[in-house]
């Protein structure tokens, strides 16, 4: 039995291993295969998606194995031959796909995994769980970044989701253009900038007639005048007056977390200016989504805090990706089920643009056979792993590149592709058959 600490293989569904056992028994486990991860359609109301989770998936590959404890668990339903296979399991195939941060559309071959059926099929759940979650968050975050019109966004949704999902969500949001997170583990693990000052509890802790003022003075004493004071625990106007009294006109920012935010922001701006705090910024939070952000574009708001809507995908908690077998021993295979038809054979894609750089079409074609297209075109698929070894950039370098990729992608869309209203995908996808 394997005595290593690799137990990531349990991050899967039982049927992946029962399929493996059956394939080992009938001799098909070692057939050469290609699996692809793609979305048949975008979530309702979305015009584009943002690929996220690539680096997390590649980082998980070396740990996807079965230690003694994991083998003991799966021995309850697996035969000795399958257990021996899993004891020595290590993915040794090839992976290619869209760079993290790249936009995708219906039918885009976001990830292609090549190897034996045995080593590729067991990765299905891992790939789908990571890409479906992270991509959903990044896609929602990108819409919010676009709606915010250049004003910074802070991710603060840790208390609204699973504790580990919160860390991945913070990374995905930062990848899509958010400026910072409140989550310390995301800061430690991924280097995402972290921000945070105080909640209502700290104000409520200071009881008495001058409790709010005492709370603000204590916070300024601990964190300096550049801190952000939360002014809506009681009365906003009184809170602003107390904030400036505690910190002086050099106060960094005030935050409003409830009420009619646009109206309050106007009133608070006028009040701050009247008190000489002309450089004090206004931060707003409180159940914001991309539509609320768009509605605040005309308000004198300097930055936003977004929580629940972001970490739940703002109405689309999954990207809708599937992971399908498309090739066996060089022969294309595909489903024909109603409403779930897929195209067979390994695929790659080009994105075609006008000379101005505005994209107009995505062309999906049989791998290795790029078509001639009318206009400038950019190949989308890149090598991610070869013979099981990761060849793509990772860590801070990968995250920085992904942020740049998202920015470039959003700038390349036709203007109507950035609309928040329901509509068709920003650009059409054309899928070419193996015959061309």
From TrEMBL:
Keywords: Glycosyltransferase, Ligase, Phosphoprotein, Pyridine nucleotide biosynthesis, Transferase
EC number: 6.3.4.21
PTM description: Transiently phosphorylated on a His residue during the reaction cycle. Phosphorylation strongly increases the affinity for substrates and increases the rate of nicotinate D-ribonucleotide production. Dephosphorylation regenerates the low-affinity form of the enzyme, leading to product release.
Pathway assignment: Cofactor biosynthesis; NAD(+) biosynthesis; nicotinate D-ribonucleotide from nicotinate: step 1/1
Gene3D superfamilies referenced in this protein's UniProt entry, alphabetically: Aldolase class I, nicotinate phosphoribosyltransferase
Domain Nicotinate phosphoribosyltransferase N-terminal: from-to ranges: 10-132
Molecular function as annotated in GO: glycosyltransferase activity; nicotinate phosphoribosyltransferase activity
Reactions it catalyzes: 5-phospho-alpha-D-ribose 1-diphosphate + nicotinate + ATP + H2O = nicotinate beta-D-ribonucleotide + ADP + phosphate + diphosphate
Pfam families: NAPRTase_N (PF17767)
Physiological role: Catalyzes the first step in the biosynthesis of NAD from nicotinic acid, the ATP-dependent synthesis of beta-nicotinate D-ribonucleotide from nicotinate and 5-phospho-D-ribose 1-phosphate.
Family: Belongs to the NAPRTase family.
Name of the protein described by the UniProt record: Nicotinate phosphoribosyltransferase
Species the sequence originates in: [Mycobacterium] vasticus
Record lineage: Bacteria, Bacillati, Actinomycetota, Actinomycetes, Mycobacteriales
